[in-house]
TrEMBL record, chain A:
The keyword Iron applies. The lineage of its organism: Bacteria, Pseudomonadati, Pseudomonadota, Gammaproteobacteria, Oceanospirillales. It holds the Pfam family LUD_dom. Residues 457-476 are annotated as: Disordered. This is Iron-sulfur cluster-binding protein. Residues 301-331 form the 4Fe-4S ferredoxin-type domain. Keywords: 4Fe-4S, Iron, Iron-sulfur, Metal-binding. GO terms for biological process: lactate metabolic process.
UniProtKB/TrEMBL annotation, chain B:
It holds the Pfam family LUD_dom. This is LUD domain-containing protein. Residues 98-220 form the LUD domain. Gene3D superfamilies: NagB/RpiA/CoA transferase-like.
């Protein structure tokens, strides 16, 4: 997928004025957050599980080398094969080689963001292997030559009309706007592909060191058909997906569906361990796991290590006011939303992805819903610091920051100025308490009024609060 | 290249962690943890008495749009299946060849084409046994084996599953433990946890049932 992250600002502007996109994003804002909240309310242990999930991921990362080796040993023990890949090129080559040795013409694919990360489809096509996406959302996107805009709901940027149009065009069928009929159409078209494919490629939600298993979590059952019917099953996944045991995996499964779609449990949670056994009647003859690094091992021991805890549930983007306004495509690459704003700069470079960690209101909702409690705002701040250190931020911004820091280092002057500007804004705003325009602030006032400060600076209020507390404390 | 990649990745991780390969003692501790596979917090809802678990399984499975049919004993399964096929005007059935199924009297299915083989595209309906039922989310656990082709769980339009009430456990970890005890060293190629029939909300976030897997999941609940 072509990197368009440097165009974030322009893409966002277009996205905000795209009526059809805004309608589609409404479906997201009105759906996932409410469903998650309802599921969490039904699980009183949820917060405890989040703590345990965070701690266990930390333990796993602290011993990642050991658990990866255990995983490999157990994949091999059950007759599978692990292929280690430093980068996208090595992963693509490994997968193509497997396809070629199976003499593959077509491969079916379950939904995998890692395969998007390494642009696998283009590479296979260039080399004479036809990939067929089987997840309904991904299938729609492949017909449209489009890309996912969300990590679990890839076609969230589209409306029913878009699907009706592309299906009638590509399938040569009568146009229908009944979603059930459209899904039935996809079901019938893909059935032939499932049966005819030579290789099936899926991702993995987790890799279990104890058994050498990978697990996929799907509602449609496409991933299961993808990995059951062809002669060869290839799993493309990354080194941060490993967990020690089945019990550890279960901890994450309890959090994953609830955080993602608000379901109690996803319909199909399927564990794969090696190829078919001699006495089995079906299942693939070969089982390969391509274990991709692509810069992740370099995050260990850095400010960004906590990002390796991510289980790709999408709760952060589902609750993000920025994602909810501009959608996933504006982010310009594979991983959108808050998790993408932290991960993307690592994967493609802060020079290209500098806008992303800046596109945050730091409201903190992402961290508050993250099942493994990743401090996403803190890490976005780290990226802003790196960007500043590398002199990548715009001149105007650097100048402004320089001026501000002169004052910030003189607290008395700073507080006096804060008081002065607070009072002036209040006076200027008059009885309404709001300002319609302000010099240098039209980025805000073009869209909405600026509420003027009412009742003292932060420091004034803080001192008053502290005084009150002490006063109350003295009475007890 | 691949061996090289492996060393580079593991080397990077160790460098990041500020250490070399783990000491033998540390490795032993981690190996023991895997062997003991400790449980995390188990939700209270998974820890009811046997009767409560059956009731919870039932309500959670139905919430996930599975259909439940109660029968008195495993012996009544063939007649219940025959009724179902008749009601749905189906003339064929694929079923697992597990010993427990083979031992039943399939007389009631006279006139129905019954086979035990992997599913091919177009086969309408399959019948399998379940390994366990998990009450906390109304989930079935099935696993592959010589008598239970995995395609039976995914490629037909209707999947019938026989589940004895005594197989219902409260929470997932109990099912994993039972599986470890049952299969020993012969770990199955696949374990399928299934909660209701196939679905998708990929078009406008509107939930539609019957995506690529079975459109209907019917559980015959055997009161034993």
């Amino acid at each position: 997928m072509e990197i368009k992250t440097p165009e974030f600002k322009a893409s966002s502007r277009i996205a905000l004025e795209d009526v059809s996109l805004q309608k589609a994003l409404g479906n997201l804002r009105d759906g996932f957050p409410q469903k998650r909240a309802a599921a969490v309310a039904r699980m009183p242990e949820f917060e405890t599980l989040r703590d345990q999930a965070r701690d266990l991921k930390n333990h796993t990362i602290e011993h990642l080398d050991y658990y990866l080796e255990q995983f490999e040993t157990n994949v091999t023990k059950h007759g599978g094969q692990v292929h280690w890949a430093r980068d996208g090129q090595q992963a693509r080559e490994a997968i193509l080689k497997i396809c070629q040795s199976a003499d593959a013409k077509t491969v079916t694919k379950g939904k995998s963001m890692v395969s998007e990360e390494i642009a696998l489809n283009d590479y296979l096509e260039e080399n004479g292997v036809q990939p067929v996406e089987t997840d309904l959302g991904e299938y729609i996107l492949q017909l449209r030559e489009d890309h996912p805009s969300h990590i679990i709901a890839p076609a969230i940027h589209l409306n029913l009309d878009d699907v009706s149009d592309i299906f009638s065009k590509k399938h040569g069928t009568e146009r229908t706007d009944d979603p059930a009929a459209l899904m039935q159409e996809a079901r019938e078209m893909l059935r032939k592909q499932f049966v005819g494919a030579d290789v099936g490629i899926t991702g993995a939600n987790f890799c279990v060191a104890e058994t050498g298993s990978t697990i996929i979590v799907t509602n449609e059952g496409n991933g299961d058909l993808t990995q059951t019917l062809p002669k060869v099953h290839v799993v493309i996944t990354t080194i941060d997906k490993v967990v020690p045991t089945l019990e550890d995996m279960t901890l994450y499964l309890r959090l994953l569906a609830r955080s993602a779609t608000g379901q109690e449990f996803t319909v199909y949670n399927t564990l794969s361990t090696g190829p078919r056994r001699e006495e089995d009647q079906d299942g693939p003859d070969e089982f390969h796991v391509v274990l991709l690094d692509n810069g992740r091992s370099e995050m260990v021991g850095t400010d960004f290590q906590d990002m390796l805890r991510c289980i790709r549930c999408s709760a952060c983007m589902n609750h993000c006011p920025v994602y909810g306004s501009v959608g996933g495509h504006a982010y310009g690459w594979v991983y959108p939303g808050p998790m993408g704003s932290v991960l993307t700069p690592k994967l493609i470079g802060i020079d290209k992805a500098g806008h992303l960690p800046n596109a945050s209101t730091f409201c903190g909702t992402c961290e508050s819903v993250c099942p493994v409690r990743i401090p996403l705002p803190k890490m976005m701040r780290h990226w802003r610091e790196r960007e500043f250190e590398k002199h990548l931020s715009p001149t105007g911004f650097r100048f402004g920051l320089g001026v501000w820091s002169q004052f910030a280092r003189r607290p008395k002057l700073y507080r006096w100025l804060a008081k002065l500007s607070s009072l002036s804004l209040k006076t200027l705003s008059g009885k309404k308490g709001r300002l319609k325009s302000l010099p240098l602030k039209n980025g805000w006032t073009a869209w909405r009024d600026l509420p003027a400060p009412q009742g003292g600076t932060f420091m004034d209020q803080w001192k008053k609060e502290q005084g009150n507390k002490q006063h109350k404390g003295g009475q007890q | 290249m691949s061996q090289n990649a492996r060393d580079q990745i593991l080397g990077n991780i160790r460098r990041g962690l500020g250490r070399g390969e783990l000491s033998q003692q540390a490795q032993t501790q981690l190996r023991e943890r895997i062997g003991q596979h400790p449980r995390h917090t188990i939700p209270a809802r998974g820890q009811l008495d046997a009767e409560g678990q059956v009731a919870l399984f039932r309500s959670m499975a139905e919430e996930a749009a599975a259909e439940l049919i109660d029968i008195d004993s495993l012996e009544k399964l063939p007649i219940a299946v025959a009724d179902f096929l008749q009601q749905n005007q189906l003339k064929q059935l694929l079923r697992g060849s597990d010993a427990a199924l083979e031992a039943l009297d399939w007389g009631p299915l006279e006139g129905i084409k019954v086979e035990s083989r992997p599913v091919q595209a177009g086969d309408p309906i399959s019948l399998t046994l379940s390994f366990a039922g998990i009450a906390e989310t109304g989930t079935l656990m099935l696993h592959s084996g010589p008598n239970s082709p995995t395609t039976m769980n995914f490629l037909t339009d209707i999947h019938l599953v026989a589940l004895r009430q005594s197989q219902i456990v409260g929470f997932y970890e109990q099912a994993w433990q039972q599986l470890r005890e049952t299969v020993g060293e012969n770990w199955p190629r696949t374990v399928n946890m299934i909660t209701g029939p196939s679905r998708s909300a990929d078009i406008e976030q509107r939930l539609q049932m019957g995506a690529h897997g079975p459109k209907r999941l019917v559980i015959f609940m055997i009161n034993d």
